[in-house]
């Protein structure tokens, strides 16, 4: 699919919508835990507004070619929303592990058949990524992550 659009305005609008969605549930987070996410959201809003202003002042229409399956794209987007909804129920660690395994399997099966042995070979990398994310948020950034059934 080939689209012709002003990518600056489109990216700025997506950034503002994304920031608005993340800004709304912020009252549940503790006062000290919100400092870093709030700073990132403010920075995201500033960049998004700057992109929109640039797109209006100096418009540049570009042809954007979206390759691949739109069904696969929307399935991955739905998966991220499902992860976002389940993170409060199952906890960050469990939900993220399941999401990474599901995403890896789903995207890898486009190219080839995915066997259990192949998925087991990817397990150390997936575990390492999730643990690095978990420890970075929990220990380095001091963000209180949702806990659920196990963690």
TrEMBL record:
Domain of life, per lineage: Bacteria
**UniProt KW keywords:** Membrane, Transmembrane, Transmembrane helix
Kindly give the InterPro entries that the UniProt entry links to this protein: DUF1468
DUF1468 domain spans which residues? 13-146
**Which positions, given as ranges, span the membrane?**
6-24, 36-57, 77-107, 119-137
Record's protein name = Tripartite tricarboxylate transporter TctB family protein
Organism in which the protein naturally occurs = Halomonas kalidii
Q: What is the lineage of its organism?
A: Bacteria, Pseudomonadati, Pseudomonadota, Gammaproteobacteria, Oceanospirillales
């Amino acid at each position: 699919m080939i689209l012709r659009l002003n990518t600056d305005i489109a990216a700025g609008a997506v950034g503002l919508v994304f920031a608005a969605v993340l800004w709304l549930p912020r009252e549940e987070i503790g006062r000290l835990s919100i400092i870093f996410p709030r700073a990132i959201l403010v920075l995201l809003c500033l960049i998004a507004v700057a992109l929109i202003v640039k797109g209006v002042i100096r418009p540049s229409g570009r042809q954007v070619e979206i390759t691949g399956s739109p069904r696969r794209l929307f399935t991955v987007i739905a998966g991220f929303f499902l992860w976002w909804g389940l993170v409060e129920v199952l906890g960050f660690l469990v939900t993220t592990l399941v999401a990474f395994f599901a995403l890896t399997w789903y995207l890898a099966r486009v190219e080839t058949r995915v066997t259990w042995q192949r998925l087991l070979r990817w397990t150390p990398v997936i575990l390492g990524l999730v643990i690095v994310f978990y420890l970075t948020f929990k220990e380095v950034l001091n963000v209180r992550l949702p806990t659920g059934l196990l963690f």
